[in-house]
C-alpha cells in the first residue's frame, strides 16, 4: 500500500464519470489501501479513486470517528433538511467555500470484498458521502456553489500557486476490474 499523488483541479480525470467496479479482488483491496493511505497522508476526510487517477467508483472516508470505504455507492437524503458549511477538497488544496448539502443521508454500496454495506451520515459524514460520490460522477464541489460564490472560487483557484503546475493526464488509468458484477 502506498501514498499516491492527488490529481489537481484541471486534470480531466476529475471531470470523467468513473466506471462501476465489477471485480472484487486483490487489485481492489490495494486500491482501497492506497486511497486510505493517501487520504490520511493528505489530512483529508475522504478521497475518491479518480483523485488518484483511477476511474473506478470507489471512495474512502474518515470523519468524526467514522472511517471506511464504499464501492459503487449511491446515496439518498433521509429528509429535506440542508446544511450550509465550509467545504474543501484535496484536489483544490488550501481553498474552501460555503457549500449547501443535504444534512442527513443514507449511502448503500459494497465493501472491497463484495459484501453489501449501508452508511448513515449526518452533518460532516453526510457532506463527505455527497462530496466523494460527486467525484465518482465527475462533479467537483465548486459546481455546487451558488453563482456568486462559484465566481469567487474560480478566481481564487486560478490565482492559487498550485494551479496549472500539474501536467494533466488525458487518459484515465485502466484498472483490471472485470468479472463479478455488483
Automatic annotation (TrEMBL):
The gene is def. The active site is at residue 132. Belongs to the polypeptide deformylase family. Binds 1 Fe(2+) ion. Fe cation binds at residues 89, 131, 135. Its cofactor is Fe(2+). It is an enzyme of class 3 (hydrolase). Keywords: Hydrolase, Iron, Metal-binding, Protein biosynthesis. The keyword Transmembrane helix does not apply. Pfam families: Pep_deformylase. The keyword Hydrolase applies. It comes from Pseudonocardia ailaonensis. Its EC number is 3.5.1.88. Removes the formyl group from the N-terminal Met of newly synthesized proteins. Requires at least a dipeptide for an efficient rate of reaction. N-terminal L-methionine is a prerequisite for activity but the enzyme has broad specificity at other positions. It catalyses: N-terminal N-formyl-L-methionyl-[peptide] + H2O = N-terminal L-methionyl-[peptide] + formate. This is Peptide deformylase.
